Amino acid sequence: xxxxxxxxxxxxxxxxxxxxxxxxxxxxxxxxxxxxxxxxxxxxxxxxxxxxxxxxxxxxxxxxxxxxxxxxxxxxxxxxxxxxxxxxxxxxxxxxxxxxxxxxxxxxxxxxxxxxxxxxxxxxxxxxxxxxxxxxxxxxxxxxxxxxxxxxxxxxxxxxxxxxxxxxxxxxxxxxxxxxxxxxxxxxxxxxxxxxxxxxxxxxxxxxxxxxxxxxxxxxxxxxxxxxxxxxxxxxxxxxxxxxxxxxxxxxxxxxxxxxxxxxxxxxxxxxxxxxxxxxxxxxxxxxxxxxxxxxxxxxxxxxxxxxxxxxxxxxxxxxxxxxxxxxxxxxxxxxxxxxxxxxxxxxxxxxxxxxxxxxxxxxxxxxxxxxxxxxxxxxxxxxxxxxxxxxxxxxxxxxxxxxxxxxxxxxxxxxxxxxxxxxxxxxxxxxxxxxxxxxxxxxxxxxxxxxxxxxxxxxxxxxxxxxxxxxxxxxxxxxxxxxxxxxxxxxxxxxxxxxxxxxxxxxxxxxxxxxxxxxxxxxxxxxxxxxxxxxxxxxxxxxxxxxxxxxxxxxxxxxxxxxxxxxxxxxxxxxxxxxxxxxxxxxxxxxxxxxxxxxxxxxxxxxxxxxxxxxxxxxxxxxxxxxxxxxxxxxxxxxxxxxxxxxxxxxxxxxxxxxxxxxxxxxxxxxxxxxxxxxxxxxxxxxxxxxxxxxxxxx
RNA sequence: GGGUCCGUGGCGCAGACUGGACAGCGCGUUGGCCUUCUAAGUCAAUGGUCGAGGGUUCGAAUCCCUCCGGGCCCGCCA
Length: 700
Fold this sequence. Notes:
Elements: H1 7-12, H2 25-43, E1 65-68, H3 70-76, H4 80-92, E2 99-105, E3 109-114, H5 116-130, E4 143-147, H6 159-177, E5 181-188, H7 193-203, H8 222-226, H9 241-246, H10 248-277, H11 281-304, H12 306-318, H13 322-334, H14 338-361, E6 368-371, H15 372-377, H16 381-391, E7 395-398, E8 401-404, H17 406-413, H18 415-418, E9 428-431, H19 439-451, E10 456-462, H20 466-478, H21 482-486, E11 488-493, E12 496-497, H22 513-531, H23 537-557, E13 565-566, H24 569-572, H25 580-597, H26 614-624, H27 626-636, H28 639-659, H29 668-691
Parallel strand pairs: 4-5, 4-10, 5-6, 10-11, 12-13
Antiparallel strand pairs: 1-3, 2-3, 7-8, 8-9
This protein binds one RNA strand through helix 3, helix 19, helix 20, helix 22 and helix 25.
């Protein structure tokens, strides 16, 4: 898309694309073309022109790169077509290495074609010698923290959170390939009001949700569930009853939804009574609508697990003031009261255990799990932020709360234009009247912590938090850390919607990542069994895991992050073209050829000049672009570019596969050249998939 | 209401930061291709006023302005 992030934010992402490459035949070809154009311009008397810009022609038959003469023609009042022919003619006089042909074409273009013999050999050498690291390069070792996922430990990771995880993980892989020293951080928001609410509900069940507790007793075996039922197509945002019984994060999600539901119903009822006595009919109707919504939620929840729901409901009904008790629990947790710590930490540990299981299954790991309580709360970090900001003169005290006047900071440091702010930035409440801190305050403390460990920070956080992330930067300026703010990026992405409604953790309405993965693997298994009945059961299971999970990862990584996604099973689990399985299949085909070829061909001669068909040329050229694609994806932080590249490469390979015989090629040296090409394709497909965190099976 | 992001064939997307040669791809629909390296493939046909209107430019899906439609945000939630 390219519009999602400002140029300022992109600069924050660094100019990785300009870093020196190890083996990069296409960059060499590009340099050679530029040199030819410059030399030709000099010969023809167009001296002192600025940097030569080359474009990729719209049609491969027009060459691999082209130079357009329109701008030059405009300046010199000459005919663009005539300039093009003069440049082409002059360029033909120069010595060339990777450039094969130069031609004038169209109304004013000079087209450059690779000389396939030299170029293919250069490419195949590079890929062969670099192998799995072809496409990645040495960077400056700059430390980058990528914070991603960071879902609240009060419900399982749903499909929206999964988008965050996959994007964050792909970004980490791509930045690492670009030579950054990447650390992946998960921020555990254990201090918030929501966690306290979940823990409060949990306390009504007498604790005990971890292994050995009453719910763990009904643990199901994963395998049983596999063949459980034909499909889960009718399950929509109602949770997964089986998972709720055996996976802690799912159970916590249920407890949290039940608690927030019970509290909301109770609060709304009280408010409606009060409004009625005050005769505010309009507002009464409004509140009744909200109540109706929550009553509907309550019956959904009750249907899932009546016993647990009723116990929570009873507990909350008999409480004098549940909202106050939740706030009290949070206050006690922030002051590290042992009982509160035991309760909340237990809940969080259980939830995180569930996250680890889910994320581990899709190959997502972290270098650091950062507890908000430890980094921002118990060590006084957030308190210190409040104090330092108070000393900055930009805060005021309102009704016992401490508030940061963001607008004043924006004015003082001239941030309006810098951050594209067109309206007033709302003030940020830093501290509640009961002395507890708010999320963004703790996030400021966390950010200071991160800057002690890295030069750059990328926060993968949904678009919903755009304003608080801006306020965070503003707060850094207020602290005199404006330069650090420049090295902090909010990498935002749009939400995943469900067809009828928005996902809501508080309402327990979400499609979990676990159920999507289960369903994907289930469908992949059916697919594999149908297509490859000759494979053994064990291998079919393995392949379906890789294929199903790859499909989900690809679906989430391949859509530009600033586009909202509406969840449908068919969309997230696709096995046809433009999917991970399509790419994996191309890889498996390439592997198959290599297996059948054996190893004897490697040392013998190869005729690279024979790789002259449009299929082979196209493949060679596309392979050679991989390093630049990686550099570009890293520069612009766009994993979807890798996805698209991999898809295009698979597509080009399929064309080659269907049109050009390899094992039955005529002539030993031609066969060898093609085998080199297939092997290079295999390696690059595998490297590209690796950047997306997708495994490349050798058979499917 | 204000801000912001998005709007490309029936559906889902790429192309936009960095303007260039007839706007690509998938799904769908219709019709072909497995005695040749895996048909999760491939070929052909079908289908688009690039939301609308202005402007800048030799040239605009791309840059600028206005408008229309949708997502998101505007809390002592996160």
